[in-house]
Write a structure and sequence with these properties.
Layout (H helix, E strand, L loop, with lengths): L1 H13 L2 H35 L7 E2 L14 H4 L2 E5 L2 E5 L17 H17 L4 H6 L1 H6 L5 H31 L9 H29 L5 H30 L5 H21 L4 H34 L3 H13 L3 H23 L15 H32 L5
Antiparallel strand pairs: 1-2, 2-3
């Protein structure tokens, strides 16, 4: 009987104009996202070839990450050029996106399309699954047959999920196949494994909002009421809660602004440079003092910032959208954890360069940044975010089942 319900839902979707409009919209958005982000990646790759340092230059800059096509994350911050000298690190623009639209709107990468558009589409598939059947009277006829309410709920969920997930998966794989025809973009085995997990996470995320839609539909008597409630919940989960967590964390952890840090750096520089004029024989001592104070200030800032990030992420995880973004960007190597590792590694490289300068060594080792392995990324938090998405899925489905059991079909 459950197989019959699944077939009925799939056929009903295929005969609905809503299905074709939604799938066409998803296809257009996914292909547009791939095209825009692919062009952005190629532009940043061209920038890297121009600013790529010579082997003996003390400049830390990493090439653009091809997985940033799918999850842009903090890629712009990670691909800046860090010029290292005896007086510290000079941060420059590095590889910049050639698309000025990104300055006004979020980058339309694959993760953004799934987070915002696919979640809303999943709600549109689920918002009327119970209430509409009740309004039309077919739910009572269906339950008059030897079928349990659990079978009805499970059949509806699977039928609608397959109707949405299969076309989405086919469109995504087709876009990847077309992109792989470019010899300038190479995805190794490790990158493909990360990309595969990212797509699976996307499917889990879509399933979560479908479960939420069916759950709310089983609580209401009219499909219109269900839609209004779901749009309100979608706005909270996708936009409000992720930003609210960051605002609350900033109230609890005091982190100085970038402007304040720059002012403090300037004060240290001015003080020590003026002192060096009256103490010409000890200029090296003043340079050392500048470096030590700047290092302590940077270490204090990173410690505060890390506490802010941890607290903000824990609060934001009240929203499944935040967990989806955290896990996806970390898998792609453009997340907060990878960016923090890069900054710490550049500080280590700065110390190495400083030692070379103390030895009057003019050539320095080339900077190479190694991304974390897939296992380490999962262990450092991505696995928790994936499990958290699964927990959300289970909870919404169970609540939907309990609401369906008590639903008045009259």
């Amino acid at each position: 009987m459950i197989a019959t319900i699944i077939r009925k839902e799939i056929v009903s979707n295929f005969l609905s104009y809503k299905f074709f409009i939604v799938i066409l919209l998803v296809a257009i958005l996914v292909f547009t996202s791939f095209f825009i982000m692919y062009r952005d990646y190629k532009g940043r790759l061209a920038d890297f070839q121009l600013i790529k340092p010579k082997p003996e230059e003390a400049i830390a800059v990493i090439p653009p990450n091809p997985l940033s096509i799918f999850a842009k994350g903090l890629e712009d911050a990670m691909t800046r050029s860090f010029e290292v000298s005896s007086i510290g690190i000079d941060v420059r623009a590095g590889q910049q996106s050639g698309n000025d639209v990104f300055s006004f709107f979020p980058a339309p990468d694959f993760v953004y399309v799934v987070k915002v558009v696919l979640s809303l589409v999943a709600l549109l598939f689920g918002f009327d699954q119970v209430s509409r059947e009740k309004e039309s009277g077919t739910l009572r006829l269906m339950l008059a047959n030897p079928v349990s309410r659990a079978d009805v709920l499970g059949g509806k969920w699977l039928g609608n999920y397959l109707s949405l997930a299969v076309p989405f998966l086919l469109v995504t794989l087709l876009g990847l196949a077309i992109m792989s025809l470019d010899p300038g973009i190479h995805f190794g085995a490790a990158a493909l494994a990360r990309l595969g997990i990212l797509i699976l996470i996307s499917l889990v995320y879509v399933a979560l909002f479908l479960s939420l839609g069916i759950f709310v539909s089983a609580l209401t008597r009219k499909a219109a009421s269900s839609l209004v409630i779901l749009l309100f919940l979608w706005s909270l989960l996708v936009f409000v809660f992720p930003n609210m967590g960051t605002l609350l964390a900033r109230q609890m952890v005091d982190v100085p602004s970038v402007r304040a840090l720059n002012e403090k750096r300037q004060q240290i520089w001015t003080r020590e440079i003026l002192l060096s004029y009256s103490d010409r024989g000890n200029r090296a001592v003043h340079i050392k003092t500048i470096n030590e104070e700047l290092d302590r200030m940077e270490e204090d800032y990173r410690s505060r910032f890390d506490r802010l990030v941890r607290l903000s992420k824990n609060i934001n995880r009240l929203s499944p959208a935040a967990s989806f973004v955290y896990s996806s960007t970390e898998l792609a190597g453009t997340g907060i954890g990878e960016e923090s590792r890069l900054k710490k590694d550049i500080i280590r490289y700065k110390d190495t360069v400083r030692q070379d300068l103390d030895r009057d060594k003019k050539e320095h080792e080339s900077y190479v940044f190694r991304y974390r392995s897939l296992g380490l990324v999962l262990a450092d938090g991505s696995l928790f975010d994936i499990a958290w998405l699964i927990v959300f899925n289970i909870l919404f489905f169970l609540w939907g089942y309990l609401a369906m059991v008590r639903y008045d079909v009259r």
